[in-house]
Amino acid sequence: MKIQKFKKRIGLIGFGCVGQGLYDVVEANRHLGWEIGSICVKDKDKPRTLPASAFTYNVQEVLQDPSLDIIAELISDPEEALGILRQALQQGRTVVSANKKVISENLPELISLQQRHGSVLLYEASVCGSIPVLRTLEAYYGSEPLVEVRGILNGSSNYILSKLHAERGSYQLALEQAQALGFAEADSSLDVEGVDALHKLCILAAHAYGVLVHPEEVLHFGIQHINTEIVELADALDCRIKLIGSLKATATGQVALQVLPTLIPTTDALYGVEAEFNGLEIEAQFAGKQFLRGRGAGSHPTGSAVWADITSAVRGYRYTYPKLCTSQTTTASGDEQITVLLQGQGRSIATCIELLQSTLYYQSPDKSQVVLSVTPQQLKLHQTSFKLQGVFVAVIPAGVALDKIPELLARTEAIPA
Q: pTM surpassing 0.85?
């Protein structure tokens, strides 16, 4: 039997959920001529599936190893990850990463480093797990104007919302179940507060519309203040609540970005995306709508996305950012009216109404729920205040009839004109 000589070696930095997933994928494909040449971890005492002799604890042993063809940065610490990416790119290395926070907050610098040093950075795994959305946007829509890109970008929050609709249990119980299954971290704040989806949306903006936007500039609310009343209202309206990130071209040629819980009707393709799955709808000016669905979280789905980047990079693939090079598009603050539902303590809702000074449609007798018309710009202005007061915010799309609210919920009444 002929023994195959390995030709390509991977330096793996981080051996958590995604790192383990990548290791498993590489081991299953050893016949393709790849091997994990070095694995760097930080915690010497953490139990792992490999013996301690398989690891190094000095990241420079990986970064300075000339025998490695590619480096996979898969750690959770954003500051350390940024330092690793900077050094590797300055060395002219080829790197793959799944760190959406680092990439979304530092993309202009990371692009500049690649241009100056001839290095390559791929990060498909940072957005929507196993769904090849960045590759799709570059390869198929790099020269076509997009009307809208919208979808479920966070598997953890989607799992929680799915459990709430299916079982009508408490938010806390659904969160604990997501954590037990490994869909949500022990510190779930990035997922449930919409921050993870926000980071992914900013990365999508660069590839879909050619705009570089920092996450702090974008309107976003999460699901951490949801309760059973909101779920029951959505069900009564034949909707499901989903945390939706969206990029939409405006009439002025700008792009509006937002991450907001949204009531999704049965006619929407995102309605049936459940559990830890992600779903993304791309609407192009000429090609029309395309829908992508797949696992957005998990060791092997995300590890497979990293593996796809590795094998593509060695064949010479790199992001060309076609719209970033040609587009003059800027981001919009969002001045088109949208209908939103606010849920919270009566005093907090009264404060919100006063701050927004918007048209009211309906308010519950106990003043804890209100439906009103606002602009995204108004919501962004008071975003921090609403979060501190524990107010849940959800968009009600135009396709959901507002006149059904007082019909279906006895405790909801129309506000007199």
A: yes
